[in-house]
Design a protein that fits this description.
Elements: H1 2-26, E1 48-59, E2 62-70, E3 80-86, E4 92-99, E5 113-121, E6 135-142, E7 147-152, E8 160-161, E9 176-183, E10 188-195, E11 205-211, E12 218-224, E13 231-237, E14 240-249, E15 254-260, E16 265-267, E17 272-273, E18 281-285, E19 295-299, E20 310-311, E21 318-325, E22 328-335, E23 343-354, E24 371-378, E25 384-391, E26 398-403, E27 408-411, E28 414-417, E29 425-432, E30 435-440, E31 445-450, E32 459-465, E33 469-479
Parallel strand pairs: 1-20
Antiparallel strand pairs: 1-2, 2-3, 3-4, 5-6, 6-7, 7-8, 9-10, 10-11, 11-12, 13-14, 14-15, 15-16, 15-17, 18-19, 19-21, 21-22, 23-33, 24-29, 24-33, 25-26, 25-32, 26-27, 27-28, 29-30, 30-31
Length: 485
């Protein structure tokens, strides 16, 4: 009997321990995605190096995001395609690595999976479809090993490589970053790819290839003056679907507006900047979106994340549009509406006349490390005004400044001229733990920059100097984390 009781007692202890561990395993780590510089609503990989987005495609209700990823550490190299999916562009589910280096390469660069694109092969022109799901095909640069294709027949969950790779053999032209789309008027598939013909730096630019089957490609033309991550897309001007223009965009955010006939892009504007901040690079647009939508994502190149398990973040997804400006059509960016679903406590102010020197802070009720601001301001007779972000009691935070006299917007080393419209300037500002994005005049001017503020300094301050500022309207909201319920 004594032996029986002892065994029963031990059994109960084991059951209790098992239940305890099961309970703990079912609860997410409270610190998950909550590190000092971990963005709370901008995408980051769980750990290690992350850079250029690639393969952005929408299929079966999911936005797919692929990105340059090093599974071996926080430095550049050993590139794979990391993968995540979302139903709303802000809440992301991490998936296993999609594309690994070719030729079983273990080298830091050779035959690793560099950036590219993805699309849905709706009509199975590749002949690769198996089963009822449409094939998602991904085009990527295998470093020094040519342009290659991988594909998925299960909504992007598993990937196979095309057995007859490469589609375009490696040449000494530094061809990389293919972007592919269908051009309805010509009935051709179009590939734009960064390329340096004959290895000549002066010829660096974008080559245009065409194909009928997504497999066999023929070069048609080349335009100089662009480098890395090219994109080419059509947009209506001022929302008029009967009046469209094409945009050729390079990795640094420089673009030209013009025409495209399926073989040749002809620029009609000088080169313009899509972003004036310090950390915008390698943007790409989603393919296969519902008609009328064009959404873009970029890597925030050069951001620093001291002592973090990850290295790199994306900017916030933006919808693109073309609007008429003084020097022709202007490519504009607006944060996707999903940002509004993250609003928590907030304030709204209307018709407030701000006089320098008076006590009080117009946005004093808002603090934190994730904030959304929308405001329309009349500079009146002020010399300047702006916000101080992540302000503290001992240290001054980061300043967003608008110089009324020079009409210059500045933040974190980025600066641009912002002309008032009908005497008013409009700003939309996204603040996260490691970044500030400012959209001026409905996205005609954008500054995208990273920063490393003090952890406990979370106050927001509005300031003005040299005269009065009329706040026509101001909304400011603290934002929920997309990573924690």
């Amino acid at each position: 009997m004594h032996k029986y009781l002892k065994m029963k007692y031990l059994t109960l202890i084991l059951i209790a321990i098992t239940l305890a561990f099961t309970s703990l395993a079912g609860k997410p780590d409270k610190k998950y995605y909550d590190e000092k510089y971990r963005p709370q609503y901008h995408f980051t990989a769980e750990k290690n190096w992350m850079s250029n987005p690639g393969g952005l495609v929408f299929y079966s209700g999911e936005y797919h995001l692929f990105y340059q990823y090093n599974p071996n550490g926080k430095e550049w190299g050993f590139m794979h395609w990391g993968h995540a999916v979302s139903k709303d562009l802000i809440h992301w589910q991490h998936l296993p690595v999609a594309i690994s280096p070719d030729e079983d390469s273990k080298d830091k660069s050779h035959c690793t999976a560099f950036p590219g694109c993805a699309l849905v092969d709706e009509n199975n022109v590749t002949g690769l479809q198996e089963g009822s799901e449409k094939t998602i095909v991904a085009f990527y640069t295998s470093s020094a090993c040519g342009q290659r294709l991988a594909y998925s027949n299960d909504k992007g969950r598993t990937w196979k490589k095309y057995t007859k790779n490469p589609l375009i053999p490696f040449a000494k032209d530094d061809a990389h970053d293919p972007k592919v789309f269908f051009h309805k008027p010509s009935g051709n598939w179009i590939m734009v790819i960064s390329r340096k013909p004959d290895g000549d730096e002066k010829k660096q630019g974008v080559s245009i290839f065409t194909s009928k089957n997504l497999i066999d490609w023929e070069m048609q033309s080349h335009i100089t003056g662009f480098y890395d991550s090219p994109d080419l897309f059509e947009l209506p001007v001022d929302g008029d679907k009967g009046k469209t223009k094409w945009v050729m965009l390079g990795g640094s955010g420089e673009y030209k507006v013009g025409t495209f006939d399926g073989k040749l892009f002809i620029a009609e504007t000088p080169k313009k900047n899509l972003d004036y901040g310090k950390n915008f690079y390698a943007s790409q647009t989603w393919s296969n979106l519902p008609e009328g939508k064009l959404i873009q994502l970029a890597w925030m190149k050069g951001g620093e994340y001291p002592e973090m398990p990850f290295n790199g973040q994306m900017n916030f997804p933006c919808e693109l549009s073309l609007r008429t400006g003084k020097s022709g059509p202007v490519l504009c960016r607006k944060p996707v509406d999903a940002i509004n679903t993250l609003h928590e406590s907030g304030i709204t102010k209307k018709k407030k006349n701000i006089i320098p020197g008076l006590r009080g802070n117009l946005v004093g009720g808002i603090s934190g490390d994730a904030i959304h601001i929308k405001t329309t301001l009349n500079p009146e007779n002020s010399d300047g005004f702006g916000f101080i972000v992540r302000n503290g009691k001992k240290e001054v935070g980061t300043e967003i400044r608008y110089d009324t006299n020079k009409k210059i917007l500045e933040c974190l080393g980025g600066r641009a001229i912002v002309e008032p419209k009908n005497g008013l300037v409009h700003f939309e500002i996204l603040i996260d733990r490691a970044s500030i994005e400012i959209f001026a005049n409905d996205g005609e001017i954008v500054l995208t920059s990273c920063f490393t503020p003090a952890e406990n300094d979370k106050e927001l301050t509005f300031w003005s100097q040299g005269g009065e500022v009329m706040v026509e309207e101001l909304e400011a909201y603290e934002l929920k984390s997309v990573w924690r319920k």
